[in-house]
Amino acid sequence: MMAASHQESAQRATRRETLRTCVGCGERFAPEKMVRLVFVDGSKFAVDLAGKLGGRGVWIEPRYSCLKTAAQRGGFSRAMKASIRVEPREIANAIREAYRIRIDGLISSANRARAIAMGGDASLEAVRDGEASLIIFAHDAAGRRGDIEALAKKTGCDVIVHGDKARFGTLFGRNEVGVMAIKDIGLARAILEAMIRFDAVSEVG
After folding, report:
1. Residue 179 and which of 20, 57, 164, 203 are 20 to 30 A apart at CA?
2. Superfamily for 2-84?
């Protein structure tokens, strides 16, 4: 019983140690819910989604309000113990691009694993057969969008809108791709989480 108690205490301590404090809102979150920024000098920085880059860094929740607060109220400077001069919109754009690259990489991983259906007919079939874990529409997609969205809603399949047909086309060596179904649930969840953070840091205000 004593050993179990010590083990539980150690696990709780480990969980506490892995939390990071947001330099914007001051709340504490698990690292995977946050973004690490590594500052080279007072105005240059790198976005470290993996949390593995060398150098002194700060952790922030990927929300525009947190970026704005940290930049305007000295959160970055206090954490770095140096004068940091950055615009929140500049950081937001860099974080968005980092998440965009991550999403593209996850979609490419699904393609390599043959866990993806591309195009309206193939995506609709994947939803109908219960194989689709996530539907991704390009912003400029049309075609069978209404049919796919309606069926996805009935089956409980998540649907997101991201990117454009030309960008998706470059991932697959095609001219354009307007809709795709992700069949791997792990990759689908990772894409959805990245999209949530992409959208959150896009909300200006």
Report:
1. 203
2. YlxR-like (3.30.1230.10)
